[in-house]
């Protein structure tokens, strides 16, 4: 890790500490984040299903599945999928949604660690994950585990935040992400994703980079913060300070008030840049 984008000492967390932060964060936000993710990320999930050629004979795994962002969509394309997550509350949210959509016959649910997957070597056709690697202390291990559990010629798929390559921009980007969510470990750059795939014996077959505009207020809301919270105030201050030179890579801007409601204060808009990657086990 480049020193310019390393977390400061008080931000560094052991694997155990980071897991505790993840479990705490997604327990507290299981409902609000779950409501957002399973609705707003449908297009991303369906796009990844196409990129990895999810098919009716596939045995699949969605690891660090959260509220079922991928699993709920993939269940309609594959024979069977296991939804695995470290946080019971968010996994319960996925199970509830699967029941609502009458998909339970396609599912298994498991509490588990993405870094130590409870599957035999080469036992699956497909392994996918979304917006999880930046919460994990050892993403290399997760990618290796995904490659291990799929058969030769099997596919893996990822969706995650894409970090800017400029070290100074990456440092401010990380700082804002960390203030918003202390379970944020580190976002990866595109070359870093490529290196992880290569080291795990995976060949990238497709890549898709997309920008996702949203209001800063909503971004903080789904993380559990209110405008009066110190974390909200500090993250917003840093975001606004980066408008002139886009020094955070969030591309922040104020939407003129007349475009929203006459007389209302302008909204602060931002962009999350995401990357989807499909790869095949060599």
Main sheet specs: 8 strands, mixed
Report Rg. 19 Å
Q: Could you give the distance between the termini?
A: 27 Å
Low-confidence stretches: 1-11
Going by CATH, the homologous superfamily would be Vaccinia Virus protein VP39
The CATH topology label is: Rossmann fold
Outline:
The protein is an alpha/beta fold. The chain has helices spanning 15-28, 30-40, 42-51, 71-74, 88-100, 139-149, 167-180, 190-199, 216-221, 230-241, 257-260, and strands at 59-63, 80-85, 107-111, 124-130, 150-161, 202-215, 253-255, 267-281.
Task: Tell me the layout of helices and strands.
Elements: H1 15-28, H2 30-40, H3 42-51, E1 59-63, H4 71-74, E2 80-85, H5 88-100, E3 107-111, E4 124-130, H6 139-149, E5 150-161, H7 167-180, H8 190-199, E6 202-215, H9 216-221, H10 230-241, E7 253-255, H11 257-260, E8 267-281
Parallel strand pairs: 1-2, 1-4, 2-3, 4-5
Antiparallel strand pairs: 5-8, 6-8, 7-8
Helix pairs in contact: 7-10
Provide a descriptive summary of the structure in words:
Residues 1-11 have low confidence and may be disordered. This protein has a single domain, classed as Rossmann fold (3-Layer(aba) Sandwich), CATH 3.40.50. It has helices at residues 15-28, 30-40, 42-51, 71-74, 88-100, 139-149, 167-180, 190-199, 216-221, 230-241, 257-260; strands at residues 59-63, 80-85, 107-111, 124-130, 150-161, 202-215, 253-255, 267-281. The chain is α/β, with parallel strands linked by helices. The longest helix is centred in the N-terminal third of the chain and has 14 residues, at 15-28.
List keywords for this structure.
alpha/beta, 39% helix, Rossmann fold, 282 residues, 8-stranded mixed β-sheet, 8 strands
């Amino acid at each position: 890790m480049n020193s310019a984008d390393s977390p400061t000492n008080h931000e560094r967390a052991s694997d155990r500490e980071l897991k505790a932060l993840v479990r705490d964060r997604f327990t507290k936000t299981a409902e609000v984040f779950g409501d957002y993710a399973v609705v707003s990320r449908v297009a991303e999930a369906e796009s990844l299903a196409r990129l990895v050629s999810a098919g009716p004979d596939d045995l699949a795994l969605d690891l660090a599945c959260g509220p079922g962002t991928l699993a709920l969509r993939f269940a309609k394309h594959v024979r069977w999928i296991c939804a695995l997550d470290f946080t019971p509350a968010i996994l319960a949210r996925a199970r509830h949604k699967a029941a609502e959509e009458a998909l339970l016959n396609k599912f298994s649910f498991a509490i588990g660690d993405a870094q130590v997957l409870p599957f035999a070597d080469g036992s699956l056709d497909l392994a996918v994950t979304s917006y999880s690697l930046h919460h994990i202390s050892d993403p290399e291990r997760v990618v290796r585990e995904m490659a291990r559990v799929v058969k030769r010629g099997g596919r893996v798929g990822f969706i995650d935040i894409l970090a800017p390559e400029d070290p100074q921009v990456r440092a401010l980007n990380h700082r804002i992400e960390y203030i918003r969510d202390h379970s944020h470990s580190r976002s990866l750059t595109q070359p870093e994703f490529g290196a992880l795939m290569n080291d795990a014996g995976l060949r990238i077959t497709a890549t898709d980079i997309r920008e996702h505009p949203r209001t800063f207020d909503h971004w903080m809301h789904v993380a559990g913060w209110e405008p009066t919270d110190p974390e909200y105030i500090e993250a917003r201050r840093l975001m606004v300070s980066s408008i002139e030179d886009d020094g955070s890579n969030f591309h922040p801007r104020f939407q003129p008030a007349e475009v929203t409601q006459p007389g209302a204060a302008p909204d602060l808009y931002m962009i999350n840049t995401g990357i989807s990657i499909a790869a095949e086990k060599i």
